[in-house]
């Protein structure tokens, strides 16, 4: 247990940040999974509607990753790596189609 007011405050701030980081990481994982599912559906049956869905999911994922980097949840290189991974998936599908 914290022995001073400042130590108590630092513990509270650390807990607040931990919960914020956890929420961002979870949201990024969820959006990435939704994007990968959309890409898989598009690969199975390419159509303009599914392409639009893929683009929308990619935009949502990119946005959340960028916000997480801005807040300090992810290192900039980690965010760039995640975005690159997403871009690589759709590129592989569109080149073969």
Explain what you see:
There is one protein chain. By secondary structure, the protein is mainly alpha-helical. It has helices at 5-44, 48-71, 76-96. α1 packs antiparallel against α2 (48-71), α1 runs parallel beside α3 (76-96) and α2 runs antiparallel to α3 (76-96). The longest helix is centred in the first third of the chain and has 40 residues, at 5-44. The radius of gyration is 18 Å and the shape is elongated.
Keywords:
mainly alpha; 0% strand; 97 residues
Task: Please provide a brief summary of the model.
The protein is 88% helix and 0% strand.
* Order of SSEs: HHH
Number of helices: 3
Percent of residues in helices comes to over 70%
How far is the first residue's CA from the last residue's CA?
60 Å
Low-confidence stretches: none
* Most strands sheet: none
Radius of gyration (CA) equals 18 Å
Count the E strands.
Answer: 0
- What shape does the CA trace take? elongated
Strand % is under 5%
Helix-strand makeup class: mainly alpha
Mean of residue pLDDT values: 94
List the helices and strands and how they pair.
Layout: H1 5-44, H2 48-71, H3 76-96
Helix pairs in contact: 1-2, 1-3, 2-3
């Amino acid at each position: 247990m914290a022995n001073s007011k400042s130590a108590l405050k630092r513990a509270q701030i650390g807990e607040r940040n931990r919960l914020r980081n956890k929420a961002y990481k979870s949201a990024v994982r969820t959006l990435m999974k939704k994007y990968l599912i959309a890409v898989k559906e598009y690969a199975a049956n390419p159509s303009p509607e599914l392409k639009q869905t893929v683009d929308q999911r990619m935009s949502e994922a990119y946005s959340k990753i960028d916000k997480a980097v801005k807040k300090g949840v992810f290192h900039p290189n980690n965010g760039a790596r995640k975005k690159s991974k997403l871009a690589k998936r759709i590129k592989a599908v569109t080149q073969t189609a």
